[in-house]
Amino acid sequence: MEDQQAQKYGATCEAVILLHGLASNPFVMWPIQRHLERFGFETVNWSYPSMRHSIEWHACRLREQIQNIGEDSRFSRVHLVAHSMGGIVARAALATGPLQQLGRIVTLASPHHGSHAATKLSQFLGFCKPLCEMCDFQDSYVRQVPGFGRHEVGGIAATHDRVVRLASTYLAGMSDFVKVDAGHTSLLFRKEVATRVRNFLRTGRFRNDRGSVIAAKNNEGREHQTVVISERTHYR
Prior knowledge:
- The structure is a single chain.
- This protein is of the alpha/beta class.
- It is 29% helix and 22% strand.
- The strands form two sheets. The protein has a six-stranded parallel β-sheet with strand order 2-1-3-4-5-6, sandwiched between helices.
- Mean pLDDT is 87; it is low at 4-12 and 210-236.
C-alpha cells in the first residue's frame, strides 16, 4: 500500500532539508530521509559541525542553503525537518526575516525553551558554545531567538526524553504538536514519526483527530490548556 502511495506522489517537486542535532551526524536522520524520498520528496541531509561555532553561525549557512535550493526551478518549495538543536538553528535562520522559498517546518524534540541537560553539561563543557546557548536559563540564547514567524511549524516531542523536557519542545504559534512514546534520539527511528512528518509536510497536520482538554503546566509553571489525543497533543 505504501509503495503504491509513494508512486502516486512521484512528481511532487518539493525539497526537504534535514538537520541533525548537537554532537550528531546525518545518519540519524536517514530513516526519515528514506521515507520522504519514497513519497517523492527530494532531500538534503545537511551535515554541519554542530560542536563548533555558534548557533547563529550555523543559521547563516542554513539560510544560504535554503535560498540556494529554493532558486532551483525544479522545486516549488523547500521544507525543513530538524532534530533537537537543528530546530534552534532553523529558528535562528529565520531571525532576519521570512524566506519566500520556505514551506513547512517540523521540529523533533527541539529545546525551544532550553535544555536542563545542556545546563548541567555546560558546567564541564563550557568550551562548546552551542551547548551553552541551549541552557534553560531565563536569559539564555535559545530563549531570545524569535519564533518562526508566519511559517507553518509542527512539533514532535518524545515522552521519555531525558535531554529535553516535554514543555520545552512546544513553541507558541505551532500549527500542530504531537508526542510519541520514544526517547530523545530513538524517536527518529520510529516509523510513525516518519509518517507524521510526511503528513505535516503535505497537509500542515500530523493527523486529523479531535481530543479532550486537560490542564498542564509549562516549564515556567504557568497552567495552560492542552488538547490530548492518544499520542497527539495540542497546546493552547
